[in-house]
Amino acid sequence: MAKLEAKLGMIVDSVGNFFSGKDQLPWCDPDIVAGCEREVAEAGKQSDEFLQECLLRLSWALVHSKRPQDVQRGIAMLEGSLPSTADPLQQREKLYLLAVGYYRSSDYSKSRDLVERCLLIAPDWRQAVTLKTAIEDRITKDGVIGLGIAATAVGLIAGGIAAAVSRKK
């Protein structure tokens, strides 16, 4: 139990780094995911409300994992549970976590759409605003890289044509 508490302390530090700008998004290691999975298994003996809380924590851990298969599992869990979520706060949480999952999966367009839906529910939610900024920065960065690649390709093609023309002369 002490080991899980230490790992949870690392999550709190990671979240703090996210808001201070040191880290783009907090990461979660496999031990935390395993702990959350055990918690869900044990929660089945408790109330449905407690089980839902445990499932939300597991979803959080999965979408913040460094392992792509965990992130995909978290996305699937959240997408499966979102339609039956009536409470706006829970819906906001799940939309945010889905946005994180898609961000981690490099689907920035879908991530941005989800975080914007989240901001419709809570326009001043700092976590969502910060994630939206990170998504937009990533889209901009990827666009600049894409332009650089395109410019290089055009330059190579133009160079090849110029070389071919000069050989014919």
UniProtKB/TrEMBL annotation:
- Asked if the keyword ATP-binding belongs to this entry, the reply reads no
Where do the TM regions start and end?
144-165
Name of the coding gene: FIS1A_3
Q: Record the organism.
A: Stylosanthes scabra
> Pfam families under this entry?
Fis1_TPR_C (PF14853), Fis1_TPR_N (PF14852)
For this UniProt record, give its keywords in alphabetical order, as a comma-separated list: Membrane, Mitochondrion, Mitochondrion outer membrane, Transmembrane, Transmembrane helix
- Major subcellular location class: mitochondrion
Recorded superkingdom: Eukaryota
| Secretion signal span | none
Instruction: Output the lineage of the source organism.
Output: Eukaryota, Viridiplantae, Streptophyta, Embryophyta, Tracheophyta
Topological category with respect to the lipid bilayer: Single-pass membrane protein
Location in the cell reads: Mitochondrion outer membrane
| Function field | Component of the peroxisomal and mitochondrial division machineries. Plays a role in promoting the fission of mitochondria and peroxisomes.
Q: What is known of its domains?
A: The C-terminus is necessary for mitochondrial or peroxisomal targeting, while the N-terminus is necessary for mitochondrial or peroxisomal fission.
Q: Which SUPFAM superfamilies match?
A: TPR-like (SSF48452)
Q: What is this protein called?
A: Mitochondrial fission 1 protein
